[in-house]
Amino acid sequence: MRHAKASNRADSAAEVQKPDEQWRRDLTREQFGVLRRGRTERPFTGAYVHNEENGSYCCAGCGSELFRSDAKFESGTGWPSFYEPAIAQAVELRKDRSLFMRRTEVRCRRCGGHLGHVFGDGPAPTGERYCINSCALAFEPGPAQAGPGADGGGPGGDDGGPGGDGGGPGDRGI
For residue 12, what pLDDT is reported? Predict the structure, then answer.
């Protein structure tokens, strides 16, 4: 399993660093708000919520591979959900106490872009639900990945895997 560990660090040095003016030119307005300002897109509006194609989900800011389609599942939350990252080192987890909630933020390790949050109510094999903003991702079609869920059943398939209640209404989304 590819587990990432939460960090208490307020900031870590990202490999890809640009001034805000450059990020604004390189990203759409919505992508800039999410990736660089930590905002959240509205649920059920993102391009990849219901995407069932095989391939990889990369950071829209820097192109780093973050998630694969074989780890994607339908959580019912309105955002693309994955039970693990493609490579644990591709994401950075940080404690997030904003909005009077206790959550774990998910960031792209390469550029520091805000992706979403991870919750402990996902399906097997990890029990995790990486709830990610569609606009923070770029999808690259590709062959089916080997591993759990690649055959269309289980957590990576379209069987409606468990969504869980996240402990309350404030924990359901990103």
Answer: 58
For the chain, domain boundaries = 17-143
Give, in degrees to the nearest 5, the angle at Cα 52 between 47 and 57: 60
Query: Which CATH number fits the domain 17-143, given the four candidates 3.30.1360.30, 2.170.150.20, 1.10.10.10, 3.30.70.590?
Result: 2.170.150.20
Rounded to an integer, the average pLDDT of 4-21 is 67
Strand locations in the chain, DSSP E?
6-7, 55-59, 65-68, 72-73, 81-82, 91-96, 103-108, 114-119, 129-132, 137-141
Residue 154 confidence (pLDDT) above 80: no
Question: Average pLDDT of 53-70?
Answer: 97
Active site residues: 131
